[in-house]
Amino acid sequence: MNFLPLAARNVAVARCGSRTYSTLLVADHNNKSLAKGTLHAVSAAAKLPGMTKLDVLVLGKGCGDVAKECSQLQGVSKVVIAESDQLERPVADTATNLLAAVQKSGNYTVVSSVASSFAKETFPRLAAKLDVQPITDVIEVTSEEGVFKRPMYAGNAIATVKSSDAIKIVTFRATAFEAAATDGSAAIESFNTENYESAGLEWLSESEKQSDKPQLASASRVVSGGRGMKSGENFEKVLEPLCDKLNAAMGASRAAVDAGMVPNELQVGQTGKVVAPALYVAVGISGAIQHLAGMKDSKTIVAINKDADAPIFQVADYGLVGDLFEKVPELTQKA
Question: Residue 242: pLDDT above 90?
């Protein structure tokens, strides 16, 4: 019987233990244009150790332009487009069946996406169907196979998790990764869809207000109001002029949303949107941990609050103590 020297045995074990990743990334889009979060997800997926190919799946209807955008992302090997009437407004059950079919067809070992509302609804179902454990909201891909870092307890703790599943279901937090470059030229191919079985879920309508102003999820500047705004009318009279002056998107704390001052799609925080703009202005926001979880990665944070002891000042780069109804109009005038 021949024995390998210890050093050689270690090398052999390392080679046997390493795996390659064939990755499928699900694009986030509205059938017309690609959501910017997908660019960050592509960058994150490219960091997977041992990755051999990165294919992007575009599912929907009439989304050829989205597929073209995806094909230009650096690092993408191929774009797979799946179109049908049923997928125009995809819901969790039918989309799960499609994802399972694409995963099986391409023998992908990783199915990933940006941590969008669609992924949050669909990926747990896909993981259950494949009998694996999903890993959500990843903020770091380590150099060790199957090891990721993700936030817990509203970002107060960072967990290092390791998955030994043969197929990994992963979502990436867009704000934790740089956007992929757009100088690629990947091929585009179609996937033959079918009428997927539904559990009875049906898309009814979309309530998000359409606007030509910067969108909260992708804006480079955000101005958010909290309970201190007192009413929805003050959001329009006091906050909106500052947003217009700064070319910023408007956001809000959960307290303001729960009080009915503004609609849900403006909520920033653990149970709302997670943003990381170049400038984040928090007006009349105390700084509850749930809100900080959604904006603390912003490059520059400015806080305006009459309470000098408000927790928001602990994370702010610049703070202004005073009555927001005096300070914000003054700031708007000088901006």
Answer: yes
Report the 10 Å Cβ neighbour count for 62: 10
C-alpha dist (Å) from residue 209 to 146, 190, 215, 259: 40, 32, 10, 19
Cα-Cα-Cα-Cα dihedral sign, residues 256, 258, 262, 268? positive
pLDDT tens by residue, 319-333: 999 999 999 999 999
Is 0.70 surpassed by the pTM of this model?
Answer: yes
CA pair distance 131, 171, nearest whole angstrom: 17
For residues 194 and 98, give the distance between their C-alpha atoms in angstroms, rounded to a whole number: 8
Give residue 26's pLDDT band: very low, low, confident or very high (50, 70, 90). very high
Using H for helix, E for strand and C for coil, what is the string for 143-195?
CCCCEEEEEECCCCEEEEEECCCCCEEEEECHHHCCCCCCCCCCEEEECCCCC
Q: Are strands 147-152 and 157-162 parallel, antiparallel or unpaired?
A: antiparallel
Block residue for tokens 């202004």: 320
